[in-house]
């Protein structure tokens, strides 16, 4: 490793190669509890720098673990033992915004909200909105196929990636996709890298598709006595041809946590609340859409429907949803947020079974998430200093995954697999799929130096 | 091969294995001029039948060329020498329609409009609408990632495929994806099979995502003196946040052909016409949207904007676009339709260069297509009995591809590569991409028995 570090320093210069323990700690963790200090952290400033790193690593068979801002929630960017942590954060330039063809060319380290703000200046919109978007990078978002509340209407990160520049395990630079919106020329390599968590290649640039910025938005907060009614409402709204930008669910435990922390005057005797938001460029159409959704809510048994009449009221309605995470932090020293998806119709059954697990293990589990996509975030509240609680959390995670799989759902909607969900991959996908994925992994990375030990179980 | 045919017949029965020359002719062609008679045609009735065929083929190293209704336009389903033609047409059952979660599970041989009609009965909508949809199968549509006019708003076939059942080259059955709308669990195998034209595995079933059926539609036909104005209009409409279901372009040559054949009273002195269609579930919003689009057309220099006031008028407006193909057939004995895509802003330049090529070679080239996606179908009109014309056509095809690539476009938006575009693949994608694609191909099909000689150049 000493030789590798010398070669890296000679090739890239001292400013891009960090080895002091105090520096390396910064590259040792992600958004989870896991931590492992890399042997060296490298901060490339160009695709060519990444090529240099990969070639040196390949020559010596040293693992490379790429990372953006490392806000991931599945351990995917935690360095493996004896590895190079490759941080793309300095590659943060927006190279081009094309307002006519509605595209942006960006380096992997661009922060998502920086991209959003830059394109908004020319009336354009980058829709994917993971909660991490003020910290997380577009490269990390692509590597995990990040989602967010707006995905119901607009789709996930992968739906906005037209092409990628990727450094392969042998140091070759691959360009995938391109500027054409429709493109059926060979295998869809772009989609293969989306969600591959740095295990098939290192994404250094992306060509991003944009849309016109919606000018108007309307928001409703809806209370339901019964979770089943809330779930039926979600389906009824979509069946009516209404596609809200956002259709967020909070269960009674989430509501109780928020109310305890924030005193917003939320009702404590409802089983669920929905936040519904419509958006678009024609104000009257946006209003008609939220009113149609509100009408359906009333027909399907909502106790109360509050449609925001102005921006201040809208902010007030969103306060509830935005307060979920900080509220949980007050309730218990630690939380572990999962990311299952189930078919929409299975949401009530999933929440009921999760509640039963919560009762069984004696730890609160708060459920909220993107109801329109069937993407739920059960958050387990606990104290990690208590070994019994930590042991229970590990059991509960397994139970939650089994609930998802049993309801024809899966392990992750938008966080990815990393190391945290590895033990459940065979159960989720079956041995044939895992075998095929290993064939792909070996085809791209025969030495297994790109983020080894992630995504695919041994 | 005799032994292979015997084994196939023993395993599947006579009714599923055709060897008479008169039967085999039916499996020798696609929608192009190419033709090659297979040694045997097999008509499986289940995924298990396909497994049986693949295992026998693998044992003997015999190529398998899968096909649906073989309406493809790139030679992708033409049997290779000494191959088994595997027709999925008997696997035409719609296995399940789930009106709540809005999905359908179908066998690969289901005709696209049959799927569309079946889901429409429960208020649902399968949007992709290739012109072949009355003949072509969902399996073929997936294998080529078929498009159509509605793709501007709704996306291409791949955007509606949530999961696949695929028989791999070793006879294993792989299930990809699943019922969750969001799914970041391992590599995106579903997208890898979409557009792979039967070279990575044989798709036998698909889980299809549906949406609510739009209840209302409005249509406008717009005439432009200048092609540049028409193109700027397309961009202005999208920049205004209007997303029409359809934004179709016809150039002056197309208009002249239609008028000559159909006498619809179309103007012969305009450079371009657009057909714009908005749709949705709120009639007033749909009307407002077409009116907003019409206003933009007038502002950007349209000579005339006709908005259909009723269904009869709408049918009349569509007659022009629908008449393109039959009109071309009257104009010349043969036509060859290409399928390039360019960035939207490059459409006028692409059309101008194509016209220059037409003049240079002395053969008419009609251009129409999906302007909102930058997907153009230049159709070369000629007489194949004239060897000089046929030689010119081959030159023209190369020129058209070079125009597309030069304008940062590509070879195919919705037809695929097959054999027709193989000679241009290295130029389009570069050697690194082709190398990576071969790695994938070998990982899936080490014996190269799945549709060999298609998609990837040797």
Q: How does this model look, in words?
A:
The structure is a homodimer of 458-residue chains. Chain A is an alpha+beta fold and 458 residues long. Chain A has four domains: 2-87, Uridine Diphospho-n-acetylenolpyruvylglucosamine Reductase, domain 2 (2-Layer Sandwich); 94-212, Uridine Diphospho-n-acetylenolpyruvylglucosamine Reductase, domain 3 (2-Layer Sandwich), CATH 3.30.465; 216-325, Alpha-Beta Plaits (2-Layer Sandwich), CATH 3.30.70.2190; 332-419, Alpha-Beta Plaits. In chain A, 37% of the residues lie in helices and 21% in strands. The first copy, chain A, is built from 15 helices and 19 strands. In chain A, strands 12, 13, 14, 15, 16, 17, 18 and 19 form an eight-stranded antiparallel beta sheet that branches. The first copy, chain A, has a five-stranded antiparallel beta sheet with strand order 5-6-10-8-9. In chain A, strands 1-2-4-3 form a four-stranded mixed beta sheet. In chain A, strand 18 (365-370) and strand 19 (375-382) form a beta hairpin. In chain A, helix 1 runs antiparallel to helix 3 (47-60), helix 8 crosses helix 10 (283-299) and helix 13 runs antiparallel to helix 14. The longest helix of chain A is centred in the last third of the chain and has 20 residues, at 387-406. Chain A is globular and about 70 Å long. Chain A starts with a helix and ends in a 14-residue tail after the last helix. At the A-B interface, strand 9, helix 7, strand 11, helix 8 and helix 10 of A face strand 9, helix 7, strand 11, helix 8 and helix 10 of B.
């Amino acid at each position: 490793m000493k030789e590798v570090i010398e070669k890296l320093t000679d090739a890239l210069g001292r400013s891009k190669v960090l080895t002091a323990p105090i520096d390396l700690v910064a590259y040792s963790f992600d958004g989870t509890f896991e931590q492992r200090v890399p042997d060296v952290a490298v901060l490339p400033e160009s695709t060519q720098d990444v090529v240099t790193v990969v070639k040196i690593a390949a020559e010596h068979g040293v693992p490379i673990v790429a990372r953006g801002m490392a806000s991931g929630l599945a351990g995917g960017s935690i360095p493996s033992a004896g590895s190079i942590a490759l941080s793309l954060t300095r590659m943060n330039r927006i190279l081009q915004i094309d307002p006519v063809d509605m595209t942006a060319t960006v380096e992997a380290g661009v922060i998502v909200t920086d991209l959003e703000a830059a394109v908004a200046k020319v009336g354009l919109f980058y829709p994917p909105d993971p909660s991490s978007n003020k910290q997380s990078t577009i490269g990390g978002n692509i590597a995990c196929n990040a989602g967010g509340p707006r995905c119901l209407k607009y789709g996930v990160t992968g739906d906005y990636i037209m092409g990628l520049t990727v450094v392969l395990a042998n140091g070759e630079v691959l360009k995938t996709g391109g500027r054409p919106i429709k493109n059926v020329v060979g295998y869809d390599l772009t989609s293969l890298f989306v969600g591959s968590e740095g295990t098939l290649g290192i994404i250094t640039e992306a060509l991003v598709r944009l849309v016109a910025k919606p000018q108007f938005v309307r928001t409703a907060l809806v209370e339901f006595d019964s979770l089943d009614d809330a779930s039926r409402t979600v389906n009824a709204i979509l069946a009516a041809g209404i596609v809200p930008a956002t259709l967020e669910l909070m269960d009674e435990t989430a509501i109780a946590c928020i109310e305890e922390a924030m005193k917003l005057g939320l009702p404590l005797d409802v089983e669920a609340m929905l936040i519904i938001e419509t958006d678009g460029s024609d104000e009257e159409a946006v209003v008609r859409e939220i009113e149609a959704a509100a009408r359906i809510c009333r027909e399907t048994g909502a106790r109360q429907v509050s449609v925001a009449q102005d921006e201040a009221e809208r902010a007030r309605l969103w306060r509830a949803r935005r307060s979920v995470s900080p509220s949980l932090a007050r309730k218990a020293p630690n939380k572990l947020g999962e990311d299952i998806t189930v078919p929409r119709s299975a949401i009530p059954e999933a929440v009921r079974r999760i509640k039963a697990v919560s009762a069984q293990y004696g730890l609160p589990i708060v459920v909220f998430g993107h109801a329109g996509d069937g993407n739920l975030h059960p958050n387990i509240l606990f104290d990690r200093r208590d070994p019994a609680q930590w042991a229970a959390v590990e059991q509960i995670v397994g139970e939650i995954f089994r609930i998802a799989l049993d309801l024809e759902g899966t392990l992750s909607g938008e966080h990815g697999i990393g190391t945290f969900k590895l033990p459940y991959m065979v159960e989720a996908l079956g041995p044939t799929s895992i075998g095929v994925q290993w064939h792909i992994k070996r085809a791209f990375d025969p030495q297994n130096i790109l983020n080894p030990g992630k995504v695919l179980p041994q």
